[in-house]
Amino acid sequence: MTTPLHTVCPHCDAVNRMPPERLGEAPTCGKCQASLFTGQPVDLSGARFLKHIERSDLPVLVDFWAPWCGPCRSMAPFYAQAARQLEPRVRVAKVDTEANQDIGARFGIRSIPTLALFHGGREVARQPGAMDTNGILAWVQQHLR
């Protein structure tokens, strides 16, 4: 028997347990019944951010960005396209560093956009600068090996 994976619902933040082989079966949250994987980046802030990176067994890719940042806005459609391809193997999230300055400070975000990959509650890789979809996918795959 395989060990169940914990994944945090992008809607209600409930922690769900499921067998890894069910990830591709469009699983829904046991609490709110919404889809656990939407193919879109999840906006995270405050305690939601910590819950998603600390309680999920899935890797969590985070885009640290700000609304006034031109490169951040130009990368957004590429990041959304990457989310559609990475889920359900990776949770894809965004953190607005303007609205969540405490998170940016806690993780030492010095430039935006910055991608950070978390796994098991720890940061495993970081990449500053805008990238296209293929660049994002290649970078994530490189660090998940």
From TrEMBL:
The keyword Disulfide bond applies. Residues 20-145 form the Thioredoxin domain. The keyword Disulfide bond applies. It comes from the Bacteria. CDD domains: TRX_family. Keywords: Disulfide bond, Electron transport, Metal-binding, Redox-active center, Transport. One of its GO terms (molecular function) is protein-disulfide reductase activity. PANTHER family: GEO12009P1. Belongs to the thioredoxin family. This is Thioredoxin. It comes from Pseudoduganella lutea.
